[in-house]
Amino acid sequence: MSELQDLIRSLRPDKPREFDEERPIAMWTEKDVSRGKVVEAFVLILRTRGCYWALHSGCSMCGYINDARMEKVPDKAMEKQLEKAMKKYKGEKVVKIFTSGSFLDPNEISPEMQSRIIRSFEGAERLIVESLPEFIVEKNLQDIYQENLEIAIGLESSSDYVLEHKINKSFRVKDYVRAAEVLKSMGIPLKTYILLKPPFMTEREAIEDAVNSIIFASRYSKEISLNPVNIQSHTLVHHLWRRREYRVPWLWSVVEVIKRAKPKIGDVRLVSWPTAGGMKRGAHNCGKCDKKVLKAIEDFSLTQDLSVFQGLFCECIEEWKEYMDIQDINRFFV
Ligand code: SF4
Ligand SMILES: [Zn+2]
């Protein structure tokens, strides 16, 4: 185990949160896009044992360790969760089914249950599930394949150095490419998550890495989601943030990455929904302009129209630039 992994493990909660295994973690609706139109999306977060990698050590920004445990949630309990979800589902055109890990990991959801869950949403236009590349193999996908299925992978960065030394990801870029090729051969669209500002990077380095990573992932993806880091308890970024050694990214950085990357990726959709945006623990600016900048990012995500950023201004844009200049000089993480 590396030093980084030891440090991440040392920050874990003593005990995982109590949970009712017959109840999904959460369900809600939000806006998304399908067939070029803004539509309602149904989001379902299922309770499973959680991410195997979080149980090993986990990624430096991921709070899923708070939900992970060794015992598997049995199929019977998963069925109850599915029943509850079907009661809430009102035929929304986009369905996103997440776990605190990988939908395709048979230790989280058995292959039979994966199939039953997927089939329950046959009527949706888009059905998105998340998985680590490790579980994306043709054999596993054959049983659950249906036309509306899309798979999301959290690549985070196209740099192996960043994956290993700043995020502690379980896989490397070549594993993502292999999984992307399997999906392509089966005609399953890929959505890729790119992380903005892992720890131990300056704001400017983080912007460069996100722009490069989006351009790289656009070769394989139908959609890319830019995810600015937010602070979740018991993570390495939480530990650094409390010691004032980490600042979450500025919303100006999110805008900058979108403005630079979008013209280089053609028709691939680029979206960003910053978790806890405008709050202390999420990507934020000065407090005065956060709402309008977040609204512009949301408008862009729904329309793909870069003109939403025209004329977007606040005095803190100078502070953001100075912050980057000072970091460049000091290489000091405040
Ligand atoms: S980011 Fe993904 S791979 Fe990393 S610990 Fe969280 S769920 Fe697991
Ligand atoms: Zn401002």
Description:
- There is one protein chain.
- By secondary structure, this protein is an alpha/beta fold.
- The chain has one domain: Alpha-Beta Barrel (TIM Barrel), CATH 3.20.20.
- 38% of the residues lie in helices and 16% in strands.
- The chain is built from twelve helices and eight strands.
- The protein has helices at 3-10, 52-56, 75-88, 111-120, 138-144, 160-167, 173-186, 203-217, 236-242, 251-261, 290-303, 316-330, and strands spanning 26-34, 37-46, 94-99, 126-130, 149-156, 190-196, 223-228, 269-271.
- Strands 1-2-3-4-5-6-7-8 form an eight-stranded mixed sheet.
- β1 (26-34) and β2 form a beta hairpin.
- α8 (203-217) runs parallel beside α10 and α10 (251-261) runs parallel beside α11.
- It is globular, with a radius of gyration of 19 Å.
- The protein binds iron/sulfur cluster (SF4) and zinc ion.
- The site of zinc ion has 6 residues, from loops.
TL;DR?
With 334 residues, this protein is an alpha/beta fold. Helices cover 38% and strands 16% of the residues.
